[in-house]
Write a structure and sequence with these properties.
Layout: E1 8-13, E2 22-28, E3 31-37, H1 55-60, E4 69-72, E5 75-78, H2 81-99, E6 104-108, H3 118-129, E7 135-136, H4 138-141, H5 143-153, E8 161-162, E9 169-173, H6 177-180, H7 190-199, E10 203-207, E11 220-222, H8 229-242, E12 255-256, H9 258-265, H10 270-277, H11 281-293, E13 297-301, H12 303-306, H13 311-324, E14 334-335, H14 350-354, E15 358-362, E16 369-371, H15 379-385, E17 394-398, H16 402-405, H17 409-415, E18 421-425, E19 438-440, E20 461-464, H18 480-491, H19 498-515, H20 520-524, H21 532-541, H22 558-563, E21 568-572, H23 578-581, E22 589-590, H24 594-597, H25 600-607, E23 615-619, H26 633-636, E24 644-646, H27 648-654, E25 661-665, E26 670-677, E27 685-689, H28 702-706, E28 733-734, E29 736-741
Parallel strand pairs: 6-7, 6-17, 9-10, 9-13, 10-11, 12-22, 17-18, 18-19, 23-27, 24-26
Antiparallel strand pairs: 1-2, 2-3, 4-5, 4-19, 8-14, 15-16, 20-21, 23-28, 24-27, 25-26, 25-29
Length: 743
């Protein structure tokens, strides 16, 4: 506990993104006085971004909820935790009794992956409650990468990452580390690493419709038409085969389907894709030769490749190009991390092995095929609003704000009031939770311990860092893991007490112990308390450096990690991990899985489609973190960052001048926003940031409401998805732009 009479320094890992920066947090008189980087942190070595300095602002935010809230009509009141859970039961039980558990669903938001409790226990809510399916931010963010990993490696969460610190040639596609650091890539100070590549004589190339801040750290910017990255990469594959450049390197005995891929690539000449992609054929050929020639090189593709209409093809081809140029599972290439503690997401999924995890069922209204257990988040609105058997009548949201972050956001905003029951686990009364009947607030980041679970599975080094709480929570405040278990039990028809929560936790822990081939009773005897710390100790002790409960006397335990206040580092990703991580039936990688390659004709048809006059893409600012940090004044002050970026030639053609208000319209809706005329965007492309639109009545986000911005997801048609993953295509949306008035 912090001494309230003097300044105390607390060491902590920032939980906001994959960078996992080490922080020094100075606390004085019960307040965060200063946050600066921990220069001795073995992982981040003194790096920090502007968002990391604001954890104190988030903790002390007067708008942050500290007690459960129940809505009575249009008014809210604080209640005790016992009253809140009773209200949840009163709302959920009648729905389930009358309509079955199939009338209940959940939405899981992005912050879940960065939360000590939620990340480890959200599966308990889903599995134990009996909820048949959920929705998540994954179908806006990275579902194509999960699909390609499932088909290539046999697991949706076996995702290789670029070894940026050791490469000499990197192609960055659809990613902007300037704003986001890594994404499905944990690497502190990515921009510093890009600078280091160039300093040692290497090359950095950015392929993007927009000249992002990352381009300032690159040798070359290759503008590309949104949604055509897969066509560009197929042309690279064509050149590799046609010019005899294919070299599998260490993968020669582990890869199948190469001949089939060669045949598929024959028609994908650089000349065939030049007009559609906007990338000259000569540059495509040279890119293929550069990748083949360099000793240590890598292609890195991220969110811009995922949330487009050919997201799975693009995500798959990133891995394929690295394989064909011997830049896979080797230093400096695309590699598999080796985390100190395994993640629950890494455990085998029997339901994915029994039957192909695609189209096992379809959504009730649209008939959208299930992919890896989910359908597009845009289906949620119609499943709530459309009458009939199977209608969604109850929704649990977990750390998410889909009214802002989901495509066709206006329809979801209209649908949520039609629910019989809505329960939100969230720390703010925001655009989504204002529709809830009950809000169950979690602890702030500084009130709970932290150790990233899933994120270390994307890390360029095998490191570990424990963060104890900075502030003690109130005595009656349950952790999020306890909230999730209680809700699961309520869905199962109970009104649970503390003993019931502990019993479920023990059962969950026992299942995890069994997954490691150990005896649950013997292992459980090592612990007095349950919860995520017990799970973390298990995953460390049964991880690659663990003590296996005494079998390896000098092995690692959570206690040893806790004692290393600046962290422990076991070094960079090791080469040759592919045989170890593969879960395919034949223990090989089929580089031409039919489920993906059967989508190539759809991409081929795109080549014959004229590029639209204007298409919309998204962006994020370094001071923004999706929708939920706009209530921090120091991050939103200064110039307006919610603007429509438009190329000068397009602006002139549309009659738009810099700073004027324009109307951006798509088939889904329209927004009025200030124009920012800039040559940092490709001709034919306009760009709006995501995560804004804080103008809804009934929220308690006082700072965000002062500068609400506009919600770009009002322009995203819900049906516009990558066909084989169901991921939203929020980049490449056809729009019109017209002046409204001058500012």
């Amino acid at each position: 506990m912090a001494d309230m009479t003097e300044r105390r320094i607390h060491l902590r890992t920032c939980p906001l993104c994959e960078a996992m920066c080490g922080l020094e947090i100075a606390v004085e008189d019960g307040q965060v006085a200063l946050i600066r980087p921990d220069r001795d942190d073995v992982w981040s070595k003194g790096f920090i971004c502007p968002k990391g300095t604001t954890l104190g602002h988030l903790h002390h935010d007067p708008d942050r909820l500290r007690a459960p809230m129940v809505r009575d009509g249009e008014t809210w009141r604080e209640v005790t935790w016992a009253e809140a859970f009773d209200r949840c039961a009163d709302l959920l039980h009648p729905v389930i009794e009358q309509h079955g558990i199939g009338a209940v669903t959940a939405y899981v938001g992005n912050p879940t992956a960065h939360n000590f409790s939620l990340g480890r226990y959200v599966g308990v809510l889903i599995g134990m409650s009996g909820i048949p399916m959920i929705y998540s931010a994954g179908t806006v963010d990275q579902w194509p990468k999960n699909v390609s990993s499932q088909l290539l490696y046999g697991s949706m969460w076996v995702i290789p990452v670029p070894d940026v610190p050791r490469t000499d040639f990197v192609v960055v596609m659809g990613a902007n580390p300037h704003a986001s650091q890594g994404s499905l890539l944990a690497c502190p100070d990515v921009l510093g690493e890009l600078d280091a590549i160039r300093e040692r004589g290497g090359t950095v190339i950015v392929v993007d419709p927009r000249r992002t801040g990352t381009v300032d750290h690159a040798d070359e910017w290759i503008p590309i038409t949104p949604g055509t990255d897969a066509a560009l990469l197929m042309a690279v594959v064509h050149v590799l085969f046609a010019d005899g450049l294919v070299d599998l390197g260490t993968l020669s005995n582990l890869v199948t389907g190469v001949d089939a891929l060669s045949e598929l690539a024959k028609e994908w000449t650089p000349e065939a894709v030049e007009t559609t992609t906007g990338v000259p054929a000569e540059r495509i050929r040279r890119l293929a030769h550069e990748l083949a020639a360099v000793e240590r090189g890598v292609v890195y593709g991220r969110i811009g490749l995922c949330n487009q209409e050919f997201g799975t093809l693009a995500s798959w081809l990133v891995d394929v190009v690295n394989m064909l140029t011997r830049h896979f599972d080797v230093p400096g290439g695309l590699m598999f991390p080796k985390p100190v503690a395994w993640s629950t997401a890494s455990l085998p999924r029997p339901d994915h092995d029994v039957a192909p995890p695609f189209a096992r069922w379809r959504s009730r209204v649209r008939g959208a095929p299930e992919v890896l257990g989910q359908v597009p988040i845009s289906c949620l609105a119609e499943e709530i609003a459309t009458p009939g058997e199977g209608r969604i009548r109850a929704l649990i949201t977990v750390a998410g704000n889909p009214v802002i972050s989901a495509p066709d956001a206006g329809r979801l905003d209209e649908a949520l009031p039609q629910l019989d029951c809505m329960i939100s686990i969230d720390n703010w009364l925001n655009e989504t939770t204002r529709h809830a009947h009950v809000i169950l607030p979690g602890l702030s980041a500084l009130e709970q311990p932290h150790y990233d679970e899933l994120i270390w599975s994307f890390a360029v080094r095998s490191a570990a860092r424990w963060s104890p709480p900075v502030f003690p929570p109130g005595d009656d405040r349950p952790a999020e893991w306890e909230i999730l278990i209680r809700l699961a039990l309520i869905c199962a028809g109970q009104r649970p007490g503390p003993g019931d929560v502990a019993a479920v936790d023990d059962g969950f822990f026992d299942a995890l112990v069994l997954s490691q081939g150990l005896d649950p009773a013997t292992v459980r005897a090592n612990y007095r308390d349950g919860g995520p710390e017990r799970i973390l100790d298990l995953s460390i002790r049964t991880g690659p450096w663990g003590d296996r409960y005494g079998e390896v006397p000098d092995g690692l335990t959570l206690t040893k990690v806790q004692e290393a206040e600046h962290g422990i580092d076991f070094g960079p990703m090791p080469a040759g991990r592919l045989p170890e991580v593969l879960r395919t039936a034949d223990a090989k990688v089929n580089v031409a899985p039919a489920y993906i390659t059967d989508d190539l004709p759809r991409l081929r048809a795109r080549l014959d489609r004229a590029n639209g006059h204007l298409v919309l893409v998204s962006r994020r600012d370094v001071r923004s973190n999706n929708s939920w940090m706009h209530n921090v004044r120091v991050l939103v002050k200064g110039k307006d960052r919610c603007t429509l970026q438009i190329n000068p030639k397009d602006a002139a053609e549309c009659g738009v001048v810099d700073g004027s208000v324009v109307r951006v319209a798509s088939e889904a809706g329209s927004v009025d926003v200030a124009a920012e005329v800039t040559d940092a965007i490709k001709l034919g492309v306009v760009c709006l940031p995501h995560g804004w639109g804080h103008d809804k009545v009934g929220t308690r986000m006082s700072v965000a409401r002062e500068r609400p911005g506009v919600n770009n997801n009002l322009l995203a048609p819900g049906h516009f998805v990558d066909a084989i993953s169901g991921n939203a295509a929020v980049n490449g949306i056809p729009v019109t732009v017209a002046p409204v008035s001058s500012r």
